């Protein structure tokens, strides 16, 4: 079994896709006005409008209410990424900080309030884990 993608459902596709393009420095592939994907080497961040959920049923999701999932991206140099994004990310939760498990992490919220963690392994143990 392989985790293929993580999908965020939003009320504002344009805003959220542009945000993730800017913070990841990757270009989204738009399939319809209601669905886009940002592909990385290890997985895909899918972005869907609330309208896509009607295909599955009513009342399944509430965009902008996530308070229990963190979406994590491993980056080469988290401090450099922080310098690049700090002026346009409005909700920095934690500036780059070395965590007890060996990753240097930057925690922020996207425009819908989802927690995003950009991290770089910095201790030998953490580097080995992701090698």
List keywords for this structure.
single chain; about 130 residues; alpha/beta; 2,3-Dihydroxybiphenyl 1,2-Dioxygenase, domain 1; 2 domains; four-stranded mixed sheet; 8 strands; about 20% helix; globular
Topology:
Elements: E1 5-10, H1 13-24, E2 29-32, E3 35-39, E4 44-49, E5 70-74, H2 78-85, E6 92-98, E7 103-109, E8 115-121, H3 124-129
Parallel strand pairs: 1-4, 5-8
Antiparallel strand pairs: 2-3, 3-4, 6-7, 7-8
Structure description:
It is globular and about 45 Å long. Strand 3 (35-39) and strand 4 (44-49) form a beta hairpin. The two termini are 21 Å apart. It is α/β, with parallel strands linked by helices and 131 residues long. The chain has 2 domains: 1-58, 2,3-Dihydroxybiphenyl 1,2-Dioxygenase, domain 1 (Roll), CATH 3.10.180.10; 66-131, 2,3-Dihydroxybiphenyl 1,2-Dioxygenase, domain 1 (Roll), CATH 3.10.180. The chain has a 4-stranded mixed β-sheet with strand order 1-4-3-2, covered by helices on one side. The protein has helices at residues 13-24, 78-85, 124-129; strands at 5-10, 29-32, 35-39, 44-49, 70-74, 92-98, 103-109, 115-121.
């Amino acid at each position: 079994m392989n985790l293929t993608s993580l999908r965020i459902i939003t009320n504002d596709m344009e805003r959220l896709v542009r945000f993730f393009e800017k913070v990841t420095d990757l270009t989204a592939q738009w399939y319809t006005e209601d669905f886009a994907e940002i592909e990385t080497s290890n997985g895909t961040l899918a972005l869907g409008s609330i309208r896509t959920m009607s295909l599955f049923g009513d009342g399944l999701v509430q965009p902008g209410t996530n308070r229990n999932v963190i979406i994590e991206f491993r980056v080469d140099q988290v401090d450099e990424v922080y310098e690049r994004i700090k002026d346009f990310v409005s909700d920095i939760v934690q500036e780059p900080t070395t965590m007890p498990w060996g990753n240097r992490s930057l925690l922020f919220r996207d425009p819908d309030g989802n927690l995003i963690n950009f991290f770089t392994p910095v201790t030998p143990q953490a580097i080995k884990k992701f090698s």
